[in-house]
Amino acid sequence: MTATIVEHRPHRESASLRIALVMINDILRDGLSVALRGLALTTSVRAYRSMPELLTEAVDERPDVLVVNAADGVAGIATAALVAPGSKIVMLIHDARAAEAVLADGVVVDGFLLQQDLSGRTLENALRAIMTGEVPMPAVLAQQLLARAGIRRTPSSMARITLTPREHETLLLLVEGLSNKQIARRLKISDHGAKRLVAGVLLKLGCTNRTSAVVTAIRSGLVECA
């Protein structure tokens, strides 16, 4: 099946992102294609029904962002990452259980989108976060992960990770899903100061991104369930 390709030149701002969608569900894939096409941040949207289609047809133009559906399975993502190195992977999920399964499998993704929260605004916010090196993770998803992780936390492991009060504040805000700019506003510090705090927290937790930091914080008992 030939990929659906939509190219456009939005007038609202300088566009820069090439998006590839890989989803079996026709309705979901078509709906997302339309929504993404309406954003000023995208220059092209390519839609595929399967990962093999992407691997066959997208070799000449690496997508900046690859959007996949957790419900379709994650086996092909590692292969796609090899074929399109540097592409950011955003996974569509329906609840925290799906996110846990993805993380437990060791799949590396750059952000999550909740299916029930999909809108032009949430898509644009996620893409903007990707562009600035942040990891989009809806606050409600972080809260669901907290609630589900309660029975598996190991408080004794807290002794192995020591955070300053400011770093702990920063970690709590990361769990809420706040961006660096939002953390800066909440803590009344500069954007650079927030970025430095976040980097320090990731370093102490031994994590390379915000998503893994949230999971580590939950499993280590560094955050309390609401």
UniProtKB/TrEMBL annotation:
The keyword Transcription applies. Residues 156-221 form the HTH luxR-type domain. Pfam families: GerE. GO terms for molecular function: DNA binding. InterPro entries: Sig_transdc_resp-reg_C-effctor (IPR016032), Tscrpt_reg_LuxR_C (IPR000792). GO terms for biological process: regulation of DNA-templated transcription. CDD domains: LuxR_C_like (cd06170). Keywords: DNA-binding, Transcription, Transcription regulation. This is HTH luxR-type domain-containing protein. It comes from Actinoplanes awajinensis subsp. mycoplanecinus. The lineage of its organism: Bacteria, Bacillati, Actinomycetota, Actinomycetes, Micromonosporales.
